[in-house]
Design brief:
Length: 199
Protein backbone atom coordinates (compact mmCIF):
# COMPACT_ATOMS: atom_id res chain seq x y z
CA UNK A 1 0.00 0.00 0.00
CA UNK A 2 2.97 2.33 0.29
CA UNK A 3 3.31 3.32 -3.37
CA UNK A 4 -0.42 4.03 -3.89
CA UNK A 5 -0.44 6.14 -0.71
CA UNK A 6 2.55 8.14 -1.93
CA UNK A 7 0.93 8.71 -5.33
CA UNK A 8 -2.33 9.77 -3.70
CA UNK A 9 -0.45 12.15 -1.40
CA UNK A 10 1.32 13.73 -4.34
CA UNK A 11 -1.99 14.17 -6.17
CA UNK A 12 -3.65 15.68 -3.10
CA UNK A 13 -0.71 18.01 -2.63
CA UNK A 14 -0.90 19.00 -6.27
CA UNK A 15 -4.40 20.44 -5.91
CA UNK A 16 -3.81 24.14 -6.68
CA UNK A 17 -5.71 25.68 -3.77
CA UNK A 18 -4.44 29.21 -4.38
CA UNK A 19 -5.43 29.20 -8.04
CA UNK A 20 -8.90 27.80 -7.36
CA UNK A 21 -9.62 30.15 -4.43
CA UNK A 22 -8.35 33.24 -6.25
CA UNK A 23 -10.53 32.53 -9.26
CA UNK A 24 -13.59 31.90 -7.10
CA UNK A 25 -13.10 34.76 -4.63
CA UNK A 26 -11.18 37.34 -6.64
CA UNK A 27 -12.11 36.49 -10.20
CA UNK A 28 -8.41 36.42 -11.11
CA UNK A 29 -5.54 33.98 -11.24
CA UNK A 30 -3.29 34.44 -8.20
CA UNK A 31 -0.28 33.78 -10.41
CA UNK A 32 -0.97 37.13 -12.07
CA UNK A 33 -1.18 39.02 -8.76
CA UNK A 34 1.54 40.31 -6.45
CA UNK A 35 4.48 37.94 -6.23
CA UNK A 36 2.71 35.35 -8.37
CA UNK A 37 3.07 32.73 -5.64
CA UNK A 38 0.05 30.47 -5.10
CA UNK A 39 0.34 30.40 -1.32
CA UNK A 40 -1.65 31.97 1.50
CA UNK A 41 0.62 34.98 1.98
CA UNK A 42 0.18 36.21 -1.57
CA UNK A 43 -3.54 35.40 -1.44
CA UNK A 44 -3.90 37.50 1.73
CA UNK A 45 -2.08 40.45 0.16
CA UNK A 46 -4.14 40.17 -3.00
CA UNK A 47 -7.57 39.46 -1.58
CA UNK A 48 -7.46 40.06 2.15
CA UNK A 49 -7.61 37.85 5.21
CA UNK A 50 -10.49 35.66 4.01
CA UNK A 51 -8.74 34.69 0.80
CA UNK A 52 -5.47 34.06 2.61
CA UNK A 53 -7.16 31.98 5.30
CA UNK A 54 -9.05 29.92 2.71
CA UNK A 55 -5.88 29.12 0.78
CA UNK A 56 -3.92 28.39 3.94
CA UNK A 57 -6.59 26.07 5.33
CA UNK A 58 -6.87 24.10 2.10
CA UNK A 59 -3.10 23.79 1.86
CA UNK A 60 -2.94 22.49 5.43
CA UNK A 61 -5.74 20.02 4.75
CA UNK A 62 -3.95 18.58 1.71
CA UNK A 63 -1.04 17.41 3.84
CA UNK A 64 -3.20 16.43 6.81
CA UNK A 65 -5.62 14.31 4.79
CA UNK A 66 -2.84 12.59 2.84
CA UNK A 67 -1.16 11.35 6.02
CA UNK A 68 -4.42 10.49 7.78
CA UNK A 69 -5.35 8.26 4.85
CA UNK A 70 -1.95 6.60 5.11
CA UNK A 71 -2.55 6.06 8.83
CA UNK A 72 -5.90 4.52 8.02
CA UNK A 73 -4.25 1.81 5.95
CA UNK A 74 -1.76 1.14 8.76
CA UNK A 75 1.46 2.35 7.17
CA UNK A 76 4.44 2.46 9.53
CA UNK A 77 6.39 5.53 10.67
CA UNK A 78 8.86 5.49 7.77
CA UNK A 79 6.04 5.16 5.25
CA UNK A 80 4.08 7.98 6.87
CA UNK A 81 7.17 10.18 6.58
CA UNK A 82 7.40 9.40 2.86
CA UNK A 83 3.72 10.20 2.40
CA UNK A 84 4.17 13.54 4.19
CA UNK A 85 7.07 14.46 1.92
CA UNK A 86 5.09 13.38 -1.17
CA UNK A 87 2.21 15.70 -0.26
CA UNK A 88 4.54 18.69 0.08
CA UNK A 89 6.35 17.82 -3.15
CA UNK A 90 2.97 17.71 -4.86
CA UNK A 91 2.21 21.21 -3.64
CA UNK A 92 5.61 22.54 -4.65
CA UNK A 93 5.59 20.82 -8.05
CA UNK A 94 1.92 20.47 -8.92
CA UNK A 95 1.03 18.29 -11.89
CA UNK A 96 -1.89 20.66 -12.50
CA UNK A 97 0.45 23.65 -12.86
CA UNK A 98 3.09 22.04 -15.10
CA UNK A 99 5.15 21.03 -12.07
CA UNK A 100 5.26 24.53 -10.63
CA UNK A 101 3.70 25.42 -7.32
CA UNK A 102 4.03 27.07 -3.95
CA UNK A 103 6.54 26.92 -1.14
CA UNK A 104 4.94 24.17 0.86
CA UNK A 105 4.90 25.57 4.38
CA UNK A 106 1.19 25.14 5.11
CA UNK A 107 1.15 21.69 3.52
CA UNK A 108 4.24 20.76 5.53
CA UNK A 109 2.44 21.78 8.72
CA UNK A 110 -0.67 19.79 7.80
CA UNK A 111 1.30 16.67 6.93
CA UNK A 112 3.49 16.81 10.02
CA UNK A 113 0.48 17.59 12.20
CA UNK A 114 -0.87 14.18 11.20
CA UNK A 115 2.54 12.56 11.73
CA UNK A 116 3.16 14.14 15.14
CA UNK A 117 0.83 16.81 16.54
CA UNK A 118 3.12 17.43 19.51
CA UNK A 119 6.00 18.18 17.16
CA UNK A 120 4.09 20.27 14.64
CA UNK A 121 2.28 22.57 17.06
CA UNK A 122 5.44 24.25 18.47
CA UNK A 123 6.49 25.04 14.89
CA UNK A 124 3.10 26.63 14.30
CA UNK A 125 3.56 28.76 17.41
CA UNK A 126 6.93 29.91 16.10
CA UNK A 127 5.29 30.93 12.81
CA UNK A 128 2.58 32.96 14.55
CA UNK A 129 4.96 34.69 16.97
CA UNK A 130 7.51 35.63 14.31
CA UNK A 131 4.83 36.87 11.92
CA UNK A 132 3.24 39.05 14.61
CA UNK A 133 6.60 40.41 15.73
CA UNK A 134 8.14 41.11 12.32
CA UNK A 135 5.37 41.09 9.74
CA UNK A 136 7.50 38.88 7.49
CA UNK A 137 5.63 35.77 6.38
CA UNK A 138 8.75 34.33 4.75
CA UNK A 139 10.86 34.73 7.88
CA UNK A 140 8.09 33.20 10.00
CA UNK A 141 7.89 30.28 7.59
CA UNK A 142 11.63 29.68 7.54
CA UNK A 143 11.96 29.74 11.33
CA UNK A 144 8.94 27.47 11.71
CA UNK A 145 10.49 25.00 9.29
CA UNK A 146 13.71 25.17 11.29
CA UNK A 147 11.83 24.62 14.55
CA UNK A 148 9.99 21.57 13.23
CA UNK A 149 12.81 18.97 13.22
CA UNK A 150 14.11 20.36 16.51
CA UNK A 151 10.71 19.94 18.15
CA UNK A 152 10.26 16.47 16.70
CA UNK A 153 13.69 15.40 17.96
CA UNK A 154 13.06 16.82 21.43
CA UNK A 155 9.79 14.94 21.89
CA UNK A 156 11.27 11.70 20.53
CA UNK A 157 9.04 11.50 17.47
CA UNK A 158 11.39 9.02 15.82
CA UNK A 159 14.13 9.17 13.18
CA UNK A 160 11.76 8.92 10.21
CA UNK A 161 9.73 11.96 11.27
CA UNK A 162 12.87 13.98 12.03
CA UNK A 163 14.41 13.01 8.70
CA UNK A 164 11.24 14.03 6.86
CA UNK A 165 11.22 17.37 8.67
CA UNK A 166 14.89 17.94 7.76
CA UNK A 167 14.13 17.17 4.11
CA UNK A 168 11.18 19.56 4.16
CA UNK A 169 13.36 22.23 5.79
CA UNK A 170 15.90 21.94 2.97
CA UNK A 171 13.12 22.00 0.38
CA UNK A 172 11.65 25.08 2.06
CA UNK A 173 15.01 26.85 2.04
CA UNK A 174 15.35 26.20 -1.69
CA UNK A 175 11.83 27.42 -2.42
CA UNK A 176 12.42 30.54 -0.29
CA UNK A 177 15.82 31.41 -1.80
CA UNK A 178 14.55 34.66 -3.35
CA UNK A 179 12.90 35.63 -0.07
CA UNK A 180 16.15 34.99 1.79
CA UNK A 181 17.98 37.34 -0.58
CA UNK A 182 15.34 40.02 -0.04
CA UNK A 183 15.38 39.54 3.73
CA UNK A 184 19.14 40.01 3.77
CA UNK A 185 18.92 43.10 1.56
CA UNK A 186 16.02 44.63 3.51
CA UNK A 187 13.62 44.61 0.54
CA UNK A 188 11.32 41.77 1.59
CA UNK A 189 7.57 42.47 1.65
CA UNK A 190 6.08 42.86 5.11
CA UNK A 191 2.47 42.74 6.26
CA UNK A 192 3.30 45.78 8.39
CA UNK A 193 3.74 47.93 5.30
CA UNK A 194 2.35 48.04 1.81
CA UNK A 195 4.41 45.48 -0.15
CA UNK A 196 6.17 46.32 -3.38
CA UNK A 197 7.46 42.78 -3.90
CA UNK A 198 5.63 39.71 -2.65
CA UNK A 199 6.90 36.81 -0.62
Amino acid sequence: MTFPAIVLAFLLGSFPSGVVVSRLMLGRDIRDIGSGNIGAANAARAGGLKAGAAVGLLDVLKGLIAVLIARRVSLDASELALVACAAVLGHDFSIFLRFKGGKGVATTFGAMLAVSPAGALPAAVVWVVVLLMTGYSSLASLLALLALPVALALIGAGPAAVAAACFLLILGLVKHRDNIVRLLSGTEASFKRRPTDGA
